[in-house]
Amino acid sequence: GAVVSQHPSWVICKSGTSVKIECRSLDFQATTMFWYRQFPKQSLMLMATSNEGSKATYEQGVEKDKFLINHASLTLSTLTVTSAHPEDSSFYICSARGGSGGTNTGELFFGEGSRLTVL
Amino acid sequence: KQEVTQIPAALSVPEGENLVLNCSFTDSAIYNLQWFRQDPGKGLTSLLLIQSSQREQTSGRLNASLDKSSGRSTLYIAASQPGDSATYLCAVRHSNYQLIWGAGTKLIIKP
């Protein structure tokens, strides 16, 4: 099945620094990737939709200047948390739509997630 | 506005039992519904995907059903094992690819 790789799997940083998380589709091209955030004991929440070659679409309440998304190629999307603060500590997960040979199954494949802790 | 509810929030059963997890949604105009498994501190594993035109999907000991008209999906796990212990999430997708998530059911299978 399709594989999505996310890196790093965990990161600890000081308040005020920026952190970049990468999401790669390893065996398929993904024109659209999605970024989610999950706080402890809460549901996954969609942050933004990342489209290759264009600006990301952010969900209401998500600061686009704080969470920078770049989808420069069909296999890579990055999320940069700028000037991170302790309240940004969370589990960030990316996903990409799978499919092969022109078949769109609609199934989303997920990275393993990145746990961010801001001190 | 679509809302997805999962009941129960937590479930603990002895090993070997068959069990059913429930997922309900308020807007039946969905593109598909997907069941996931999440192990503590880890990412998501997709279990089953049901397209809006389908009634059920099966994979090994797992069977997922979909009743769009009533806004319900169930995940049936047969002959449960301790390794099935995890949080199970359902998510419905609309045509814009946005996923609306349930809060999950935390499942514990006791040896």
N→C terminal distance of chain B: 41 Å
Biggest sheet of chain B, in brief?
6 strands, mixed
The number of helical elements of chain A comes to: 0
Radius of gyration of chain B: 13 Å
CA radius of gyration of chain A: 14 Å
Q: Report helical residue fraction of chain B.
A: under 10%
Helix content of chain A: under 10%
Give the largest chain-chain interface (CB within 8 Å). A-B, 23 and 22 residues
Q: Whole-number average pLDDT of chain B?
A: 90
| Chain oligomer state | heterodimer
Stretches of chain A where pLDDT is under 50 for at least 5 consecutive residues are 99-104
Poorly predicted tracts of residues of chain B: none
Describe this structure in words.
The complex is a heterodimer of chains A (119) and B (111). Helices cover 0% and strands 50% of the residues of chain A. With 119 residues, chain A is mainly beta. The radius of gyration of chain A is 14 Å and the shape is globular. Chain A has no helices and eleven strands. In chain A, the strands form two sheets. In chain A, strands 2, 4, 5, 6, 9, 10 and 11 form a seven-stranded mixed sheet that branches. Chain B is globular. Chain B has strands at 4-7, 10-14, 19-25, 32-38, 44-51, 56-59, 62-67, 72-77, 86-93, 99-101, 105-110. Chain B is mainly β and 111 residues long. Chain B contains no helices and eleven strands. In chain B, strand 9 and strand 10 (99-101) form a beta hairpin. In chain B, strands 2, 4, 5, 9, 10 and 11 form a six-stranded mixed sheet that branches. In chain B, strands 1-3-8-7-6 form a five-stranded antiparallel sheet, with no helix packed on it. Classes of the chains: A mainly beta (119), B mainly beta (111). At the A-B interface, strand 5, strand 9 and strand 10 of A face strand 4, strand 5 and strand 9 of B.
